Amino acid sequence: MTDFEGLLRRLGAEDVRFVLVGGFASTVHGSPRITVDLDIVYARDAENLTRLVRALAPLSPYLRGAPAGLPFELDVPTLTRGLNFTLTTTMGDLDLLGEVAGGGTYEQLLPQTSRIRVFDADIDIVTLSQLIRLKRAAGRPKDLEVLAELEALLEEQRSEK
Amino acid sequence: MPDHEPLHANDDEGFEPDPVIEVYKRDVDRTLIREQLRRSVDVRVGNMIAALRVVEALREAARRQRPR
Question: If I label A61, which of A1, A75, A124, B13 is the partner at 20 to 30 A Cα–Cα?
């Protein structure tokens, strides 16, 4: 089971710059669904890649679903050559996204975030509207129910203001 | 110490309704959503993790029950 608190604390301890997206972000906003992994959009400048490696290397990150024994190492050159990585770690499943459909890079997403405190860590989280846009842009049929719920959540939030 | 904004501080933008999603919305349990909105972020996250632990425990139990 993914240790959400452990992962977020590790990222926070190394001052990794990222935006929280995906299912955990939905939970924070009020979705009652459970999610099994942590999704983040990370800044891809050299300093942040170094911080990210420092945060994750002790967790034995490996490509999720890949055959065992591949020579995969999460280091700065690997992050630089790739973009999006679906990983399994000793603290559970983590998706590192360099870019997302409908939202772009970390820098492009940042204006559509709020800073909140979760597990004693300060985290930038996409707004619910932007979360909905990202899901719509992904265009997956399996997300239709989730989208309906997120949009209903947004309507209920706005009706409470 | 950074300022913490309200969760919806930057969320004023709207978007076009999608007709397919509008149909799915009819089946959304809004009473559940309203309950969630009354809860703090910490409680929402804590409840989700607790539910996930139950799911994992059930899966593990099912794995152990499988005939060899």
Answer: A124
For residue B58, give its domain range.
30-65
Q: Which two tokens stand for residue A26?
A: 């939905």
Distance from CA of B68 to the nearest CA of A (A): 25
Q: Answer yes or no: is the ipTM higher than 0.95.
A: no
pLDDT tens string, chain A, 161 residues long: the values are 999 999 999 999 999 999 999 999 999 999 999 999 999 999 999 999 999 999 999 999 999 988 888 888 999 999 999 999 999 999 999 999 999 998 899 999 999 999 999 888 889 999 999 999 999 998 888 899 999 999 999 999 988 76
Which site among B1, B18, B49 would you substitute to test the A interface, given the most A Cβ atoms closer than 10 Å to its Cβ? B49
Q: Which amino acid is at A134?
A: L
A109 to chain B: closest CA residue = B10
User: Does any domain span residue B19?
Assistant: no
Domain around A137: 4-160
Tell me if B21 and A151 make a contact (CB, 8 A cut-off): yes
Q: Does A10 contact B at CB distance below 8 Å?
A: no
Quote the number of domains for chain A.
1
Rg (C-alpha) for chain A, rounded Å, is 16
pTM: 0.90
Terminal CA-CA length for chain B: 56
Q: Do A98 and A44 contact (CB within 8 A), yes or no? A: yes
Distance between B28 CA and the closest CA of chain A, angstroms: 6
CB A24 within 8 Å of CB A11: no
Query: Is residue B10 situated within a structural domain?
Result: no
Structural domain count, chain B: 1
Local structure of residue B28 (DSSP, 8 states): -
